[in-house]
């Protein structure tokens, strides 16, 4: 099989919301630099994306919204509505072209997997999972995730499992496929009571023939590695096994990290790396290795995002990095020049075990995470013919 694909074009760094906006393209630039210096990119073929045209964007977004984004993208900012021009989603010159380029990358990678040209691909500049058909939301202009999944469906893939591990609910992707039984959407996120977008309750299940294909695990603030992994393994493999997907699509937002300023979960880079290993296991077991991995949130652009997504790239390629790998001197110099006020990491670990351990769920309700697990299982497991109280399911 051909080498995996990594989507990259420095023009994607033009998706810059400006000023002190938390979604800063530095996180993508430093990820590319770190993965390159550690030799991770040697295992990849670079896919230079095409700007998605209106026909491609229109598979998810309305014509009126696409035109509004284009109108707001000129050198003189224009108020156009559709969620654009807010603090979360400021308008900027070139917004349409840069957002459509990122979307084009996810579409191109999705088509390559659908047509069996490759088994695996990564677009860490993608994962913009909040954008809705007719409006921007949560820093996201075009929903490249939904567009990539739609491209796979259009190419003849019949069953796709989408797993979102961002701290925020993957609401835009869920909404896009809420009535489509061909797409299973799973999101593990901080509780809607405490975090944007305020959705992602266990009772959000999908409608009609798609009932049971939306799966939501709402986690309490303060959830750390072991509890998060307990929830993942208590819910995700069972429904994925029952659904029998042909392709796995994942969104790897890093904002569940304990240092992230916009969320309240407590994962480490090591816990996130362990999550990526679990996702790879799912792809190998259920989809013959076919896996499209996307980026997402993550607002610690120096200390967290580059290390987490470099581990992701290594794991997707099957060339795992040891967590104790030192940070390369050239990368340290580059990061220090960009953010001289930030204490830089010394290696690819947060000092927790190589593969983070957890206590499997046993059907009890001993901790807050156990209650979250049972709420999700009781809501969705019977719809897949599974026993919500049997840990073996």
Structural summary, described in words:
It is a single chain. By secondary structure, the chain is of the alpha/beta class. The protein has a single domain (5-384), classed as Arginase, Chain A. It is 34% helix and 10% strand. It has eleven helices and eight strands. It has helices at residues 26-37, 54-57, 63-71, 95-114, 144-154, 171-176, 225-243, 269-286, 305-317, 329-338, 368-380; strands spanning 5-7, 45-47, 120-123, 160-164, 183-190, 214-219, 247-251, 291-294. Strands 2-1-3-8-7-4-5-6 form an eight-stranded parallel beta sheet, sandwiched between helices. Helix 1 links the parallel strand 1 and strand 2 (45-47). Helix 4 (95-114) packs parallel to helix 5. The radius of gyration is 19 Å and the shape is globular. The two termini are 33 Å apart. The mean pLDDT is 97. GO terms for molecular function: histone deacetylase activity. Keywords: Acetoin catabolism. It comes from Nakamurella multipartita (strain ATCC 700099 / DSM 44233 / CIP 104796 / JCM 9543 / NBRC 105858 / Y-104). Pathway: Ketone degradation; acetoin degradation. Belongs to the histone deacetylase family.
């Amino acid at each position: 099989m051909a080498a995996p694909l990594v989507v990259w074009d420095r023009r994607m760094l033009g998706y810059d919301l400006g000023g002190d906006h938390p979604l800063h393209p530095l996180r993508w630039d430093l990820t590319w630099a770190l993965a390159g210096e550690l030799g991770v990119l040697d295992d990849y073929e670079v896919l230079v994306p095409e700007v998605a045209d209106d026909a491609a964007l229109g598979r998810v977004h309305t014509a009126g919204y696409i035109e509004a984004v284009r109108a707001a993208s000129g050198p003189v900012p224009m108020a156009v509505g559709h969620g654009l021009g807010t603090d979360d989603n400021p308008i900027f010159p070139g917004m349409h072209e840069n957002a459509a380029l990122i979307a084009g990358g996810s579409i191109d990678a999705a088509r390559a997997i659908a047509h069996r040209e490759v088994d695996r691909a990564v677009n860490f500049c993608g994962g913009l999972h909040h954008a809705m058909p007719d409006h921007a939301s949560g820093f996201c202009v075009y929903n490249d995730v939904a567009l990539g999944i739609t491209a796979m469906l259009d190419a003849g893939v019949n069953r796709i499992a989408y797993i979102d591990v961002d701290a925020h609910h993957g609401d835009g992707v869920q909404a896009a496929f809420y009535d489509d039984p061909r797409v299973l959407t799973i999101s593990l996120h901080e509780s809607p009571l405490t975090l944007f977008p305020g959705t992602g309750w266990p009772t959000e299940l999908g409608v009609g023939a798609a009932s049971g294909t939306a799966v939501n695990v709402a986690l309490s603030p303060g959830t750390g590695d072991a509890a998060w992994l307990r929830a993942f393994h208590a819910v995700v493999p069972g429904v994925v096994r029952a659904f029998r997907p042909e392709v796995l699509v994942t969104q790897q937002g890093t904002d569940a990290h304990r240092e992230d300023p916009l969320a309240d979960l407590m994962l480490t880079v090591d816990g996130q790396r362990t999550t990526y290993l679990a996702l790879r296991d799912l792809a190998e077991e259920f989809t013959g290795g076919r896996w499209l991995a996307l980026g997402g949130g993550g607002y610690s652009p120096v200390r967290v995002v580059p290390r987490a997504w470099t581990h992701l790239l290594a794991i997707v390629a099957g060339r795992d990095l040891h967590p104790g790998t030192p940070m390369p001197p050239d990368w340290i110099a580059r990061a220090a020049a960009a953010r001289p006020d930030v204490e830089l990491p010394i290696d690819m670990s947060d000092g927790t075990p190589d593969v983070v351990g957890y206590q499997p769920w046993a059907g009890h309700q001993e901790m807050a995470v156990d209650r979250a697990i049972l709420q999700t299982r009781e809501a969705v497991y019977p719809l897949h013919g599974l026993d919500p109280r049997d840990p073996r399911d």
